[in-house]
Write a structure and sequence with these properties.
Among the domains are: 71 residues, no CATH class; 259 residues, Cupredoxins -  blue copper proteins (Immunoglobulin-like, Sandwich). Helix content is 8%, strand content 27%. The chain contains 5 helices and 21 strands. The strands form 4 sheets. Strands 12-11-14-19-16-17 form a 6-stranded mixed sheet, with no helix packed on it. Strands 1-5-10-9-7 form a 5-stranded mixed sheet. Helix 1 crosses helix 2. Bound molecules: copper (II) ion. Copper (II) ion (CU) binds next to loops.
Length: 487
């Protein structure tokens, strides 16, 4: 017998909000399929014979008519699909899925996918936590903590149904633990230090092992001394591909982007985990614009972007120019086609993942960025004095004899500040050089490059060459006259 899905239950529940559980039951009883017997084990009769079975006693005071066998003895739980985490822990694993055969690997701009090997029918990974020198963008090198040399940008890929064994070696100077965010697994594998397991001491290697009973976009991160260890870079993405993808789940390009945030005081070389606001290094897969690697697609490719956010304190409304997309999944579940909704900006809160999909039908270079303006600034945009409107000419005249290159910045905004010299090991507040001028964004910024012709996805095709007459420019005298614009 077909089960009611969690969603139909939700829908019928919503319809019955003003009524009672009886209303839900009535809605169910009206469905074509027979309601569930009170106890399937003791009710061997076939659905077709259900009408001959006396109605089961009901919990509700006034049960509705139950034409299809009276399966109304339901605890509240019966109306919900079992969470997989409530299912048996010892489900028989399916064979390990192989890239290119059983799944299309994700693209991790600036990041990496963790290699694996297969041993006795299980997929074996080895995570190594250690201290490294990490470059957020040319000019800013810092000492961070990393998974296998990747700061906030390592991705683990798996396939629904497979058995994984993940070894975790701690080469940090501190105890740690690793949590698998959003994953159904035995409680003792959940990775909260002290709660689910002993801490992993420096030098120790722990083994996590479970069978994936779900698919989707999840994350992993340190779950001990979280404020310090995640602020130092111990975050990653976990992508689980469906064992039997539905046709609508196919995409041509599948990107994985984890967002993060750090505070690195100008002139220092180590993130400060104590900061709770004013983060000045905002990352996609551990890099800031202009060091973020572009998302390269062909015109009319179907594209998925998986966003995850393991920033310390900030949500990120991720905005994509040029197309409308659909939000297709959260880290809770795939959203059915009928319930996916169109957006141009998707809010990815701390601790959430969101999948979006779209058809890249418009060639060009389209910005992809967090829409919080302070999150598209780099390091030096954050502790800057407000000089807007200040007349600094006198000051400049007095200082330039002493410091010939001195010029006060910020008097007409910060768009001019990318020209200024910066202290050693720091990056200016703004981004990088574009095809027309300096691009005044940094941080959580990337570019979706859509091209009609592309030899390879693996090389940056350069800047978009716009068809003649399709770029905004200085208004001509004839245009101004024609439209009666006086300037
Ligand atoms: Cu943001």
């Amino acid at each position: 017998m077909k089960k009611a899905t969690r969603r139909t239950v939700l829908l019928s529940g919503a319809a019955a909000v003003g009524g009672s559980l009886v209303g839900v039951m009535a809605a169910r009883a009206g469905a074509a399929e027979p309601a569930a017997p009170a106890d399937p084990e003791s009710t061997p009769s076939a659905p077709g014979a259900a009408g001959s079975t006396p109605p089961a006693p009901a919990d509700a005071a006034s049960p509705p008519p139950a034409p299809a066998g009276g399966g109304i003895k339901q605890t509240n739980l019966d109306w919900w699909e079992k969470s997989y985490s409530g299912g048996p822990l010892d489900v028989a694993p399916l064979p390990p899925g192989l890239p290119g055969k059983d799944y299309q690997p994700v693209v991790v701009p600036n990041g990496a996918t963790l290699p694996f090997k297969i041993v006795d029918g299980a997929k074996v990974f080895h995570l190594v936590l250690g201290e490294i020198e990490h470059e957020f963008a040319p000019g800013l090198k810092t000492t961070c903590w990393a998974f296998n040399g990747q700061v906030a940008g390592l991705t683990i890929e798996a396939v629904e149904g497979e058995r994984v064994r993940i070894y975790v070696t701690n080469r940090l100077p501190a105890e740690t633990s690793v949590h698998w965010h959003g994953v159904y697994l035995p409680n003792g594998m959940d990775g909260v230090g002290g709660l689910n397991q002993p801490l992993i001491a420096p030098g120790e290697t722990f083994l996590y092992e479970w069978t994936f009973r779900q698919h989707g976009t999840f994350m992993f991160h340190s779950h001990h001394d979280e404020m310090t260890q995640m602020a130092m870079g111990l975050t990653g993405m976990l992508v689980v591909h469906p064992r039997h993808p539905a046709p609508e789940q196919h995409v041509d390009r599948d990107f994985s982007i984890l967002t993060g945030e750090f505070f690195v005081r100008v002139g220092t070389s180590r993130p400060n985990p104590i900061k709770d606001q004013g983060f000045n290094v905002l990352t996609m897969n551990g890099k800031v614009f202009p060091a973020t690697w572009p998302l390269i697609v062909k015109t009319n490719d179907k594209v998925r972007i998986r966003f995850g956010n393991l920033s310390a304190m900030d949500h990120h409304p991720m905005h994509l120019h040029g197309v409308h997309f659909r939000v297709t999944a959260t880290d809770g579940e795939q959203i059915p086609l009928s319930a996916q909704w169109p957006e141009t900006t998707v809010l990815v809160a701390v601790g959430q993942t969101r999948e979006i999909e779209f058809i890249a039908d418009a060639p060009g270079d389209w910005a992809l960025h967090c829409h919080m303006t302070h999150h598209v600034m780099n390091q030096m945009g954050h502790d800057f004095p407000n000089m807007l409107g200040v007349d600094a000419d006198g000051l400049d005249r007095k200082i330039t004899p002493l410091l010939p290159q001195y010029m006060t910045m910020g008097t007409s905004g910060m768009g001019d500040s990318m020209h200024m010299a910066v202290p050693p090991n720091s990056i200016p507040m703004m981004g990088g050089r574009g095809p027309f001028a300096f691009i005044s964004m940094g941080g959580l910024v990337n570019v979706l490059k859509v091209r009609d012709r592309l030899d390879t996805y693996d090389e940056d095709p350069g800047w978009y060459e716009h068809p003649k007459g399709t770029v905004a420019g200085v208004a001509g005298a004839a245009d101004l006259r024609r439209d009666g614009i006086e300037v």
